[in-house]
Amino acid sequence: MTAAGLITYTAVAAVLTVTPGADTMLVIRNVIARGQRAGVVTTLGICSGLFVHALLSALGLSLILARSAEAFTVGKLAGALYLGWLGAQSLRRAARRAPPEATLPRAGDARASDPARSWREGFLTNVLNPKVAVFYLAFLPQFVGPRDPLLPTFLALAAIHATLGLVWLSLLSSLLERARGWFERPAVRRALEGVSGAVLVGLGARLALARR
Fold first, then answer.
1. Among 49, 50, 137, 211, fewest CB within 10 Å belongs to which?
2. Residue at 133 is within a domain
3. Closest CA to 109 of 25, 200, 44, 37
4. Per-residue pLDDT tens for 181-211?
């Protein structure tokens, strides 16, 4: 890969990273529901999913999703259902009236002590999105030179994308944590839960209707 190609890839990956989507909304949802730590761990799950897509693309398995209508449909419906389920959880919390003394989880709080759940949500949201798989299959090969080893190069490109995602989404989690006093207002928290839930459901519906 040339230096110019690396710079171009990093710039495009950075734009994709900061563009709001399912990953961003999931991090916001989890910070609101379980605190900053949950947001960071969710981000780690999301970034882990990128390496799965890079591996599958390098092995050519993503080609099945790109060329098989049935496989793409199954993949997108699985991802859509998962996003819809996560969104429905947020909508249910938004509809439930919290006691006035309810606060966001803090470090060490039992409500924030389930990192496996946060990581799993981030990982599955990313891995179950067939559009990411197809994007990696179409995008990454453009930055692989004729003499570059395919798998190591794909994984290196995924590492760049993951690093950008980790920095951006962790920063977002930190900013949300700093606004804790505002989020702890019951009306504000319920409104944000409702918005994030509705957006996740909408993104799930959009994925379900997506074409290759």
1. 211
2. yes
3. 37
4. 666 666 766 776 777 777 777 767 776 776 6
Q: Are 131 and 210 in contact (CB under 8 A)?
A: yes
Q: Which amino acid is at 140?
A: L
The range of the structural domain enclosing residue 55 comes to 3-8+22-209
Q: Is 19 left (phi over 0), alpha (psi -120 to 50) or beta?
A: beta
* Beta carbons within 8 Å of 50's beta carbon, 6+ residues apart: 126, 132, 136, 158, 161, 162, 165
Highest mean predicted confidence (pLDDT) among 29-33, 100-104, 140-144: 29-33
> How far from the centroid of its chain's Cα atoms is residue 6's Cα?
23
Type and span of the H or E element at 175: helix 150-178
What is the distance, to the nearest Å, from the Cα of residue 155 to the centroid of all Cα atoms in its chain?
A: 18
